[in-house]
Amino acid sequence: MTRRFPQTIVLTVWLAAWAPLALAATAKTASTKAVSTKTSAKSSSSKSTKSATKAKSDSVLVRIGKETITTGQFQRRLDELPEHVRPQFITPDGRQRLLDRMVEEKVWLMAATKKGIDKRPDVIRQIDQQRRDVLIRTYINEVMANNAPPGDSEALGYYEAHKAEFATPATVSISHIETKSESQAKKVRGWVKSQDWNKLAAKYSTDSLTKDHGGALGPVTREGIFGQLGKQPALAESAFALGEGKIGGPYKTDQGWHVIRVDSVKPAGYRPFDQVRGGIIRQMSSKQSQDYYLAKYGEAKTMLGVEADSAAIKKFLSLKRSARDMFNDAQAAGGPNERIDAYRKVLEAYPQSDVSPQAQFMIGFIQSEELKDYDAAEQSFRAVLEHYPHSELAASAKWMVEHMRSETAPGFMNLASDSTKAGHALPTTSKP
User: Fold this and answer.
1) In whole angstroms, what is the distance from residue 226 CA to residue 181 CA?
2) pLDDT number for residue 14
């Protein structure tokens, strides 16, 4: 058996259908190339070419009512396409496809204009937004183009002033022969004076991962974090104390006993400038760009005479959103827990508004029908009965308390338009 509820919350889905205009470029770039002429013959040829191009631009390819598509318009459209797309439309077939697309666009544009779509307030608002964004983006790009990136001398100055940021710790590279007992380690320690280290490691070391590679553990700092042995600071300090080329041990760790050989010691130092130059320039460029932007923004505000009314702003920011707006937001929230939290915020801000009974009821309804948390739902429904006893939803809340754990549910719940007036009949049940 299943519960049968009427639709109480209408979700509006806006669908936008567009003709396949994917080839229209979203970012337009234009480049101009100056052609120098060295001979009068080339100059004459260039003039002839320009004349021919101008003539072609006046050639009408398609007429759509009183509108036309000319060769000049076609060429401009082709030039506006991204470079990686343009080759697809230089063949006869490709040019025909692009022309068909331009006709398609022109037809729909003229049809929309004829219907007055361009006069609609929401459309005008979108066009104004696009115009605003293009103007702002273009101007800011031009302003920021004057912000020269930091050079090598500035980067070197930063490097010298912040050298501690590029410090590298001392490291020691160690090889070891690991044994299970101190006595075995002492024997190995004696043998290494006269026998080959690698052969001894291969034969006697219990570290299966390094024994065939001379027991190499690689470099480690004074913190003593070894890839194979874990954290062994005492072993690392012993290696530093021995010095390069020395052999020591046996040393005890939680892994066993170790005879070690110090292969190399690298003192503490600094990463070379050439190694960190790129990162420094990127870091400096980011901060410099931010500072430059804020400075230019400040200049523009001063030039235009920006004045803020702090009292009006404070009053505006302190305005509460209406209960209905908060309730609508709660309906549109994501998952069940998000909606419950949003409905609770409605109740916190407006405990006695016209939508408060609905908000309280919806908390219980979500807990019951989506989360199946009937104990929590019962508390929520009882809150409806306690705080909103005269609401239309009081009867539905009472019914839910009594029957929500069963397989039936009210056949009618007026969630969309609640009022606090009494006098409505109890909901009827629907059985499958």
Assistant:
1) 21
2) 27
Cα angle for residues 173, 177, 183 (degrees, 5° grid) = 135
Last residue of a domain, one of 241, 267, 293: 267
Instruction: Give CA–CA dist 380/361, Å, rounded.
Output: 7
Give the containing element (helix H, strand E) for 410.
strand 409-410
Strands (E), 104-199: 167-168, 171-179
Domain boundary among 237, 267, 297: 267
| Residues 254/262, Cβ–Cβ less than 8 Å | no
Q: Percent of the chain scored above 70 by pLDDT? A: 81
Residues spanned by the domain of 252: 170-267
Structure letter (DSSP) for residue 89: G
Q: Is residue 160 part of a domain?
A: no
Q: Is residue 103 assigned to a domain?
A: no
| 329 and 425 together in one domain | yes
Would you list the DSSP string of 246-303? -EEEEEEETTEEEEEEEEEEE--EE--HHHHHHHHHHHHHHHHHHHHHHHHHHHHHHH
Q: CB neighbours (10 Å) of residue 261?
A: 24
Q: Is residue 275 part of a domain?
A: no
Same domain, 328 and 420: yes
pLDDT surpassing 90 at residue 202 = yes
Q: In the chain, what percentage of residues exceed pLDDT 90?
A: 76
In a domain, 382, yes or no: yes
Number of domains present in the structure of the chain: 2
Kindly state whether residues 181 and 257 are assigned to the same domain: yes
Per-residue confidence (pLDDT) for residue 227, from 0 to 100 = 87
Claim: this prediction has a pTM higher than 0.70: no
- In terms of Cα–Cα distance, which of 189, 256, 269 is closest to 221? 269
**What are 125-165's pLDDT values in tens digits?**
999 999 999 999 999 999 999 998 899 999 999 999 999 99
Count CA atoms within 13 Å of residue 7 on its CB side.
Answer: 4
Mapping DSSP to helix (H, G, I), strand (E, B) and coil, where does residue 68 land? strand
40 pLDDT above the threshold of 80: no
Within this chain, do residues 353 and 421 fall inside the same structural domain, yes or no? yes
- Model confidence at 20, in pLDDT bands (50, 70, 90)? very low
410 and 327 within one domain? yes
